[in-house]
Amino acid sequence: MMAMCFIIETAPVAGHIAIKDPSMHKAAVWTATLAALTISTVAQADVRIKLGSRERVSQLFAYPNNCSVICFRDWTLEQTAEHYLTQSVQRDGYTGGVSVKSDNDVLYADISGVPDGYGTPLTALLDAGELAISGAKKLNLDQKWQYNWYLFLPLGMALENRKSVELLHFPPDTSLTLAQDYLVSATTDRWATLLTLNGIPAARTPGYQTIIDIAPIAAPANAGSSLEEVYSYFQSYQTTMVKELSQNAKGNSLPMVAFGAPVRKWINQQYGANVPVLGLATISPSAGQQVAVLGSNHPSYIWYADNKANYDGDQAKADAAGLAVMGQDLSAACWQAAMGQTPGADPAITLNACMQKWQVTDKVQTCELFYTAERDLSEEQAAAKCSTGEVTRSLQQLQKPLVTPVSHPYL
Q1: Quick check: is 13 in a domain?
Q2: How far apart are CA 147 and CA 211, in angstroms?
Q3: How far is 27 from 405, CA to CA, in rounded Å?
């Protein structure tokens, strides 16, 4: 049976909205999550998880997250750990509370209202984090660590109720120092919007955005080139994370999206799989495990591709390139949404259905979404723009491979 994408008609949201109040950001989404998510029917319990010594927890939780003489948020180590663990509990759809306490300088997390065994994926994440710490220390010994980098693990993700995995390059430093939320960035916000356009309620998108960064380093957004030589230092961490997170609690494989040129190249080097944009492959993170991987543009690539400065100021060329990227990105998000909802679906049939929808059947909607989200036009203005002859000709090119006018090796 052909897998289809079910689309919720919703007002398009600009993909690069500034975060005006990070301390409050997504609080409404968390509240909605508790109401909207179907809570597991597994018996709820109270679990105690040993996090480790204060030194270990400080390293794994990048503590203090945002202090430079004066702390942006003056949280204790216990409060910091509680903050990220609460994000995970809520994004898994549970209503339980989290309390982190110290006993003889060993920290424990008490989590209520979650299933027995809830601590298993958290323990696996923290154990993998020690591999990242080892890699970072070696990187520093080799004098390749930079002063404005921070080791940052993907804390606060859904630990149990994951639907798909996203492979990315590195987290922006503001996700750690400003927002203290791994899922708060222009990149993740834009992709969450594309998932909602493909039928995933906004409250559920965190379950689809379980992120593995091949460089677990929070760095300035323009740090792509400086991170080029670090990947090999984190190989054990990377492969362990892919192995652990690419299957759910039942051991079933989850769909994976590889975002951006560095990640797609890493997939090829590590697993021998070629995943160009909208290309499919299968990898085996462990014996007997088969994981479907889709290649995608980096979520931020559209802001480079649709910049007229890259076309000698030619706005029409910039719009045509941006429109092509929008079609590809909507198709990739459609595949991720559909496969996340029905993991047993055929990946190739699902991808073909998604490309048919966004690049053929509903290409006018793709066009209108581009102009509302990326050019800030009203819905009426976008509809008028997408009916002009010049844009109509661009729409006929959506199915053809996008030829990047100016290469960008880090997006």
Answers
A1: no
A2: 24
A3: 40
Lowest mean pLDDT among 12-21, 155-164, 229-238: 12-21
Asked, for residue 148, whether it belongs to a domain, the answer is: yes
pLDDT at residue 303 is higher than 60? yes
**Is 22 domain-assigned?**
no
**pTM of the entire predicted model:** 0.88
- State how many domains the chain has: 1
CA atoms within 13 A on the CB side of 410: 12
Secondary structure in 3-state letters for the chain: CCCCCCCCCCCCCCCCCCCCCCCCCCHHHHHHHHHHCCCCCCCEEEEEEEEEEHHHHHHHCCCCCCEECEECCCCCHHHHHHHHHHHHHHHCCCCCCEEEEEECCEEEEEEEEEECCCHHHHHHHHHHHHHHHHHHHHHHHCCCCCCCCEECCCCCCCCCCCCCEEEECCCEHHHHHCCCCCCCCHHHHHHHHHHHHCCCCHHHHHHHCEEEECCCEEECCCCCHHHCCCHHHHHHHHHHHHHHHCECCCCCECCEEEECHHHHHHHHHHHCCCCCCCCEEEECCCCCCCEEEEEECCCCHHHHHCCHHHHCCCHHHHHHHHHHHHHHHHHHHHHHHHHHHCCCCCHHHHHHHHHHHHHHHCHHHHHHHHHHHCCCCCHHHHHHHCCCHHHHHHHCCCCCCCCCCCCCCCC
What is the model's pLDDT at position 35? 43
Say how far apart CA 171 and CA 179 lie, in whole Å: 12
Average of per-residue pLDDT across 246-271: 95
* Residue-range definition of the domain harbouring residue 220: 27-395
Spatial CB neighbours of 354, under 8 Å, sequence gap ≥ 6 = 5, 198, 330, 331, 332, 334, 335, 338
Report the chain's terminal Cα–Cα distance, integer Å. Answer: 35
Q: How confident is the model at residue 10 (pLDDT cuts 50, 70, 90)?
A: very low
Residue 1, domain member (yes or no): no
As beta bridge partners, residue 237 has none
Whether 326 shows a pLDDT value over 70: the answer reads yes
The whole-chain average pLDDT of the chain stands at 89
Confidence category of residue 404, pLDDT binned at 50, 70, 90: low
Distance of CA 368 to the CA centre of its chain: 25
Q: How far apart are CA 106 and CA 345, in angstroms?
A: 45
